[in-house]
Amino acid sequence: MDMNHVIGIAIVGMCLSLAAPAQGKPLPWERGDRGKAPRAEKMEQRIKAKRAELIRSRIGLSEADSDEVLKTLERFDPRRRELMEKRRGLRQSMERLFESDSEDQEEYRRVVAGLRAVEEAAHRLRGEQADALARVVSPKHQLRILVAMKRFQKRLHKRQGEHRRERRERGPREDRGRRGGR
Predict the structure, then answer these.
(1) Is the overall model pTM greater than 0.70, yes or no?
(2) For the segment 20-56, what is each residue's pLDDT rounded down to a tens digit?
(3) Biggest alpha carbon distance in the chain?
């Protein structure tokens, strides 16, 4: 691990440490009281369909191999989703600490520890996924999948950012009318 990577992780850790909720409230991922919104499920289905299309059309695998790759990738989705939720909760906690200008060092420590745990778990998950793919496809196809998925992820993040910007520009929900501006 190079020094820039270590510094980046430390900075992210410090930022997330600032995200812990004040007054010792449980972190959002510790509550476990939220279900998925119907829109989120639709989006997830569309993302899975795009991923399947990408694997089938761009990688050059047989139908059986592409199905096996998709099954392998989907096996890791629940754990990845769980880590994303934890990371989101840490960021929200960090924002609350920043907004309240809290001096509760224990909460900061708690969020930093949570961030480090999430990042380490994500790293392990990526390694496990790479090992699982190595059992299914050749190294050439592994690299193609890696590059294609990175490009797909980059485009997805870009579109999500554009969507967030549009929502911010539209203003709060109550200003958009009964149906949310539709």
Answers:
(1) no
(2) 444 455 554 454 545 556 777 888 888 888 888 888 8
(3) 57
